[in-house]
Amino acid sequence: MTEFLLEARARVLHDLAAYRMADASAVSVLEEALSQRGWWVAQWPDGAAFLAGLIAQDVQDALFDAGSRWPRCRACGPGPEHSLGVEPELGEDPRWVCTESGLEVAPVGALRALDQSTG
Q1: Angle CA(52)–CA(65)–CA(3) in degrees, nearest 5?
Q2: Under 8 Å between Cβ of 39 and 7
Q3: Along the chain (119 residues), what's the average pLDDT of each consecutive run of 10 residues?
Q4: Is the whole model's pTM more than 0.90, yes or no?
Q5: I need a surface site. Which of 19, 46, 62, 75 has the fewest CB within 10 A?
Q6: Are 20 and 114 in contact (CB under 8 A)?
Q7: Torsion angle, CA of 85/87/91/94, rounded to 10 degrees?
Q8: What is the DSSP code (8-state) at residue 114?
Q9: Residues 10, 13: Cα–Cα separation, whole Å
């Protein structure tokens, strides 16, 4: 079980860092999500393969509640700001998908880093 939690932590932390969101507040949100999902997976061990997507969603929801949109879609170009979502909501091999176009952007844990000229 621990290896699945550590893998999920690494994947979500990578995506936070890729969008320059891996500050103390966001990492605390991530740690809280890991703590809660640790209990959840102890109750349902077969759900271990779903942890990365669930934790990404938990962090995304908590950051949104705190007033931050993460991760913002960069695939659509100019237009209204919108987020990426995790698909499948409960399943293996979670990926970030544009909530507007449905375009698959990257697996959870593989978002590309913002370059210096991008905000």
Answers
A1: 20
A2: no
A3: 94 97 97 96 94 98 95 87 94 95 96 67
A4: yes
A5: 46
A6: yes
A7: -80
A8: P
A9: 5
What DSSP string describes 1-64? -HHHHHHHHHHHHHHHHHTT--SHHHHHHHHHHHHHHHHHHHH-GGGGGGHHHHHHHHHHHHHH
Phi and psi, residue 105, nearest 5°: -95, -50
Degrees to nearest 5, angle at CA 97 with 95 and 103: 125
Q: Let me know: does 70 contact 53? Beta carbons within 8 Å.
A: no
Residue at 110: amino acid letter? A
Task: Say what the pLDDT of residue 79 is.
Answer: 79
**Max intra-chain CA distance, the chain:** 45
In the chain, the amino acid numbered 51 is: L
CA angle 54, 56, 58 (to 5 degrees): 70
